[in-house]
Write a structure and sequence with these properties.
heterodimer; A: about 170 residues; mainly alpha; two-stranded antiparallel sheet; 2 strands; about 0% strand; B: about 500 residues
Chain lengths: ~170, ~500
């Protein structure tokens, strides 16, 4: 997975720092887990081990593994190894950002309209397609989805103002 | 003999026209899912799971398992024609499959791959037919300590057999257990780790995790790598198919070995990916053409494909017989069972005969139908990859979002999906395996319950896990699996001078 990165030798955040970041984030989750388990009790109650018993030890193991992983990474990963080039990360963010907007819009305007916007945006922005083709795909896919889920398989999806205007 | 009768009854269920249609639909969807980057067996099944809510459990499992077979077949198409493994288990297929396509032998490679897949799957299904009922009836005697021991064995195998650093496997697995523990405690009815956040009351659903980790995460990775599809033409006519079929029987020993490797790796939850690599590696060492591997040897396609399918199929054995899935996809199918109101585990064979034997019969039928479909429709499926990624990516995103939403009809789950997607991207890039995490989220509650019940009966003594022959044996196997890399290193040091066995 990392070959493409190693060969090019461009600049970007170092692999070590990202590894440490991931381990630190997991350790943070483990600490939250330990804290939460202590709150509900980790000892022996009337019905045997209490609710926090299992998550407490699980969190301890995570914490231990994170420490070992961090040490291993510091010992073995070359300082110069790049996680991904800035250009590549920009690509990732440019997909992630519209997705986040999309997810945020779904509860308000419904999944169909939001999907049409997402597909249209992608095609115009990344694919450099002309507006007519993009709009066509952006409209047809949600309509097909609508038919498949709401009509054939009877699975309701989130709908917004447009759908209620059309009477669904 | 009763099993044979049940199996025939299962066939009768499967060949009902409605179920046959579902089977074909499932295979076609599965191949598409397998061909597309960002969609794989596990999240493909997870996304399409809601479509089955209104079906009978038997029809539902037929369709979903066929999606899985389709995805297994589909992975080979992209590996051979585009040098892009559609699935992790088809990486080994690219080594010789793509060179064959470059030399204009794409048809031969595809035929060999599909046929090998079929043989591997068929072998595994026969094993399932023969072994699963025995395992299930044996497992009916299991008490909580034995059940926990089986989970223990399953998770230890992950640590020992994974090619990722062991402590990364442990961290990702335990994170899964932790996420699975959030919400209502099954035994005391207490809320835990929710910190008063309303959305966390129900905990983290593993289907959301699967869709996020494997779906969104994969798309982010694909974007980073910048895909360019330069495919070889996919001409596959019947003459080539028959010519290749005439060649294949001489590799029967290779087939047998790959099948056995696959079944072993599939039942112990190491999964299809290591099975395909292991089979390829061993074939390369044993074959007299071994030094030519990587330049387009048909054996180099046969070995990984047979093993991957044998493993992918046999991963369902522990799922059916014990309620312990052997792969993320099997875990998703298990989640489906729960949603349809079935209790996975050995009792299925007693209480849900129709369902179990329908599933087993559909494995036979599904693979036959699958082979026919992929052999005849390769160019069609290959053309899917020629659709530009800027069109496919948002459509996949939309389907992931729909899949995540429909699990609980909850838009917060869609947000969680994106969170899991980002987590999946970083975890993949830093070599944390995702499968153990998913399985831990699924099995967390059950493993914990078995563990606590065992402790309750022994008043807190861990000796209960070594209290009788059966449970001690399973626990010992688990410990061996856990420390397998160390044992192997010690063993090869003992007989130093000889070659070190490949993983």
């Amino acid at each position: 997975m990392n070959q493409t990165v190693d060969k090019t030798g461009g600049t970007g955040p170092s692999h070590r720092s990202v590894e440490i970041g991931v381990a630190a984030f997991m350790a943070l989750l483990a600490l939250i887990g330990i804290f939460g388990s202590l709150k509900v009790g980790i000892g022996w109650g009337d019905e045997g081990p209490r609710a926090g018993f299992f998550p407490f030890y699980v969190s301890l193991v995570i914490l231990g593994s994170c420490i070992i992983n961090t040490i291993t990474v510091l010992a073995t990963t070359a300082r110069t190894r790049v996680f991904a080039e800035w250009g590549q990360l920009r690509q990732v963010v440019s997909v992630l950002a519209p997705t986040i907007v999309y997810v945020a819009l779904v509860p308000y305007i419904g999944i169909y309209v939001a999907s049409a916007l997402l597909i249209g945006f992608f095609m115009v922005w990344f694919g450099r397609y002309n507006l007519i083709l993009s709009a066509a795909v952006a409209v047809v896919v949600p309509i097909l989805t609508f038919l498949m889920f709401e009509i054939w398989f009877l699975v309701p999806l989130p709908k917004g103002a447009l759908e209620s205007m059309l009477g669904f | 003999m009763e099993d044979i009768a049940n199996l025939f009854h299962g066939f009768a269920v499967v060949i009902q026209p409605f179920n046959l249609v579902l089977m074909v639909v499932g295979i076609v969807l599965g191949v598409i899912v397998g061909v597309l980057p960002g969609l794989g067996g596990a999240n493909g099944v997870a996304i399409l799971l809601p479509l089955t809510f209104s079906m009978s459990p038997t029809s539902a499992i037929i369709m979903l398992s066929c999606i899985y077979w389709g995805a297994l077949f589909g992975g080979a198409i992209t590996s051979i024609l585009f040098n892009i493994p559609g699935e992790p288990w088809s990486v080994a297929t690219t080594f010789d499959g793509y060179p064959m396509a470059q030399h204009g032998r794409a048809g031969e490679a595809l035929t060999a791959a599909f046929t090998s897949s079929f043989v591997g799957a068929l072998f595994a299904v026969i094993i399932i037919t023969l072994v699963a009922p025995l395992v299930a009836s044996f497992a009916l005697r299991f008490g909580p300590p034995e059940i926990f021991a089986v989970y223990f064995l399953a998770f230890c195998s992950f640590v020992g057999l994974s090619k990722e650093p062991p402590f990364k496997t442990v961290a990702s697995m335990m994170l899964g257990f932790g996420l699975g523990a959030v919400g209502l405690d099954q035994m005391t009815g207490q809320l835990r780790l929710t910190f008063g956040v309303e959305q966390m009351l129900n905990g983290f659903d593993f289907l959301i995790a699967v869709i996020g980790l494997f779906g969104i995460g994969e798309i982010l990775l694909t974007m980073e790598e910048g895909l360019s599809f330069r495919g070889k033409p996919a001409a596959l006519n019947m003459k080539i198919v028959f010519q290749t079929w005439a060649k294949l029987p001489r590799y029967w020993l290779l087939y047998l070995r790959s099948c056995l490797i696959g079944c072993w790796m599939g039942i112990s939850p190491a999964g299809a990916t290591p099975a395909s690599f292991m089979s390829y590696g061993i074939a390369k060492r044993i074959s007299k053409n071994g030094h030519l591997f990587g330049t387009g040897q048909i054996e180099g396609v046969v070995a990984p494909e047979t093993a991957a399918h044998a493993a992918g199929t046999s991963a369902l054995l522990p799922m059916i017989a014990l309620g312990v899935p052997g792969s993320p996809t099997a875990a998703v199918l298990l989640g489906g069972l729960l949603i349809w109101g079935l209790q996975p585990g050995p009792l299925l064979f007693v209480e849900q005969k129709d369902f179990v034997w329908g599933l087993i019969a559909s494995m036979y039928m599904g693979n036959i139908v699958g082979l026919l479909i992929v052999l005849t429709c390769v160019p069609l499926f290959a053309s899917i990859l020629r659709i530009p990624f800027s069109v496919i990516a948002p459509v996949i995103m939309v389907f992931c979002a729909i899949g995540a939403y429909t699990v609980h009809n909850n838009t917060f789950d869609v947000v969680m999906m994106v969170v899991f997607g980002v987590a999946g991207y970083f975890m993949k890039k830093t070599n944390y395996p995702l499968a153990p995490m998913v399985l831990a989220i699924v099995l967390g509650d059950k493993a914990e319950e078995a563990f606590r019940q065992s402790l309750l009966s022994s008043q807190g003594g861990l000796g209960v896990f070594f209290s009788n022959g059966l449970v001690s044996t399973i626990m010992t196997l688990g410990l061996i699996a856990l420390f397998w890399p160390l044992i192997q290193a010690g063993w090869s040091r003992l007989r130093s001078g000889k070659l070190r066995p490949a993983e």
